[in-house]
Structures are given as C-alpha cells and as structure tokens.
Amino acid sequence: MIEQHAASGSPGDDRIESITVRLGALEREIAAAHVRERRWRRVALATALPLVALACIAATQASGISDVVRARRFEVVDSGNRVVFLAAVGEHGGQVDLWGPGGANVVRMGANGQGGDLAMWNARGELVTGMYATEAGGRVETNTTDGSMTAMLATNERGPAFALADAQGRPLFAAAAAEGSVGVSVRSPEGRELVAMGAASGKSGVMRVADAAGVPVVELASGDDGGTVTCATRAGTRAAALGVMAPDSGGALALYAPGGNETVSAKARTDAGAQIALGRSSDEPMMVMQTGAADAPLFSLMSGGLRLVGLGATPTGGLLNLGNASGTPVVVVGAAADADGGAMSLRGGQGQQLVRVGIDTVGAGEVAVYDGSGLRKKVLGAVSSAP
Fold first, then answer.
1. Global confidence as pTM
2. Which of 6, 267, 268, 321 could anchor a disulfide with 329, C-beta 3.0 to 4.6 Å?
3. CATH hierarchy code of domain 296-387
C-alpha cells in the first residue's frame, strides 16, 4: 500500500505548517496597508503648513563661494514663485519634498524614526508607492489610486515575503520564507486557496492544487521513499495515488472507493516482478495477478484472504487449483510433471490426494484411487499397446 500524504491538507502536516502561518500573516499585513495609506494622506496635507521657522543662509565668502550652507529650511521655486523643492526638518529628522507642475506634492523622502522613508503620490495626490525601513527590515509597497495595496515586498526577523493583490486589495499571491522553510500561496478573488507549495530545510516538498471551491484535489509530495501524487474527489476524499513503495523498489498505483478503501492496486515488486490486486480493501483482495523474476505468473481469485482459484504457469505447463472454503486445494488440473500429457488430482479437505487421473509411463490413460491414508487402493489403466 502506498504511503501518501492526505490530499485534504490536514493541519498536522508540519512540512508547510510554518509557511501557512507566515502566508496568513502576509494577508493581515495587506489589510494593515490601508491604515498606513491614510496616515500618508494626512502627512501629505500637512506639508503645506510651515515646518520650522525660516533661517538665514550663511554669509558668502569674499570669493562668492561658500564651503558650507546651513539652514533649517531650503526652498526652490519656479518662475511662478511656487515651491517645487523643499529641504527641511521633519518630525523625525531631515525631509525632502518635490512638487509637480500641477502643484501636487509627488515625492517625499525623509526619516520615520526607524530609518529611511520614501513616498510617491500621483498628480492627484494619491499615494501610489511607498518604500521605508522598519525595526525588522525594509518594505516596498505599490497601491492603486484608491489606496489599495497591490504589491508588497518586505523582510523582517522571520524572513522575506512578497504579496500581490487585485485592485480591490484582495490577496491573490503570497510567497514567504520562515525558519528554514519557504512557501507560496495562490488564491482566488473570493479568498480560496487554489495552489499551495512549500518546502522545509532537510524535509520534503509539497504542492497542493484545489478546485474552484478551495477543496484540495491534487497533492504532489516528496518523502524518504520518493515522490507521490495523490488525487481527491471534490468532497475531499482520496481517490487515487501514484508513488513509490520503498526507496529501492519501483512504482505503485492505488485507486480508492468513495469510502476511502483501497480497491485497486498495482505495484512493482523488489524481485523485478509486478502485482495487480482488486478487492474491497487493501486487506481483503479478491483478484490478484502477479509475477516475479523467479516465480511463475499466477492469477488468483480470493475470498476472506484465502485463495479459492489459482491459475498459473509452471515450467511443465499450465496449472489450475480450486480450493475449498478453507483455501485448501481440492481440485488440481494441469500438465503432468512426470508424463507427457495432462493430469487431474481430486483431494480431500485436508489436502490429501484421493483420485488421480493422468497418463502412465507408456502414454496410456490411468485412473488411481487412494484411501484416506494416501495409500494406493486401486488403479484403472488402459491395455498397453507397447510391443
């Protein structure tokens, strides 16, 4: 039986659990971006107010060139006497602002108390790009004109992260690394996770694909034995699995009934053979076909784990076994091993031979009847035609 990882995405799968938590944190950060956007708008409006008292520029040297210009505020105006460049002292340190030809403050560069800050607005005063330092790293954001964040690249003490959202700010793509693991999540506009990929250092990788309702229906995983592909129904129950039985063996295929029982299995055996089984479950096969490098091919019909019908090939020819309810062969028909022809053996419930029909040593027909002890009781043979 193949050892699969559940396609339903159980919470116990520790290979991508830390990544799932990290991607969830990204979605919360996207929502928090709207709060920051409103803060930037308030700051942009306050730019028109005086920041500090004006100061005089240091006196020019006799040569007309000064080595140092010191001021608390420096303005550059255009031909219409409008400020287009401002260098001043902000709340947390130095600050530089630029205005466009329409009078909108379009760029601000300064300090935010945790490091550097760069914000850009469009000509209508709408924040569209932000880049700033945080206590744990850096962050870059791009927004739509209504303030919804559409892309974010950030890093913090847990690792780097990247996210994309649609025009309404709904997360569609997220990638993050945390604690030696990495994960990627793709979501529908309705918030359903459609694709999830993850990998952990020193452990296996996993990829899950869901249907439109968000139910995982395909899982690709790698493990100690090899790779596995698992398919599930839209109800989330496992339906098929393709993988590797053991590190040194070949491939295996399993099909499952709606109740989850393995009803069909096909696998390559370690002895260079193969086996196909049909049944109610992996513990109760009903039809088995198998072969091996040293074994003769065999077809079996089973009941309760017992072989009742066996059809195989031997070095001397074909062989058919019919068993009783206990699985003991009571009828054996096939090519004779000691003569050139066929043979049939009728046996008792304990497997002892009672009747044998076959070919004698001179090629004539022969019927032998035995008692319960297995001693020959009577033999009926044809008249020999030998000279």
1. 0.65
2. 321
3. 3.90.930.1
